[in-house]
Amino acid sequence: MSARILDGKALAERVRAEVRAGVDAFRAQYGRVPGLDVVLVGEDPGSVVYTRNKEKASNEVGMRGRLHALAASTPEEQLVEMVRGLNADPLVDGILVQLPLPKPIDSAKILDLIDVAKDVDGFHPVNAGLLALGRPGGLVACTPAGCMRLIALSGTALERANAVVVGRSNTVGKPMAQLLLSANATVTVAHSRTRDLARVCRGADVLVAAVGRAQMIRGDWIKPSAVVLDVGQNRVVPPEGKAKMVGDVAFDEAKEVAGFITPVPGGVGPMTIAMLLVNTLEAAKRRARSQPRA
Ligand code: NDP
Is 121 an active-site residue? Predict the structure, then answer.
């Protein structure tokens, strides 16, 4: 049997079209467009590509997207000042500081500084806390939010399902587990100290891999007909040939067992950017509603 592919690129295109319409309506109502400011510190090749893509995607849906590229040697105090300035700027609705930040910058200090209402990555402790408490009104981390849309696309009911999230980062694994729990799945979070990971994965009706290890999850770790979401983005260089991006799941093996699976590239990645646009539009609407018109 071959799994059905969950096409994140096509779904992201539909989400982006909805955001575009939302931006038009926002402009008509408030006389300005939502603003997304992306801050990049240093020249990590992956981060350079991701931040450019985010800036481009926001402009393509009619937002005012800006990329602030700072040198890796930028002192922490300068970054603090930049975030404070963006917090105070009424035309900025969303602020995203690309991670990882170069040492010795204290990432937690910078993330904590971002105005909660503009925290479109959903990484601020207040937004993470609202999600953990199962309370509405926060901004939800983009990658897990995108995964939830992809699970919905598969038509899989999460209530009573066994979900396994491999990875417990604050940015992907933990918020993913919270969302699945809120949807009434029974959730297991696995990590580097988990005993017999293959067995844990085999129990998953829904398996989310967010590890950062190329093709670690093999076909025989997958429960027949499971829904498999592959968050991993690992750059590998085959002995012959050029570098390519692969996921945390051995796709060719897994697709023979799973019911649904996301490809890499073209699965979770495009949905992450689409959900960033959703969050930015939502942040802009909330801010506009709570402020007197300019
Ligand atoms: P982190 O490095 O922050 O977290 C990785 C997690 O995987 C940790 O919890 C770690 O466990 C766990 N882990 C590592 N090795 C193993 C192992 N051998 N067995 C079981 N668990 C293990 O990564 P991120 O969460 O930031 O990202 C994960 C992947 O997703 C990366 O490939 C990243 O590039 C990708 N990514 C993709 C996005 C997209 O849009 N598609 C967005 C964000 C990330 P422990 O906590 O015990 O160390």
Answer: yes
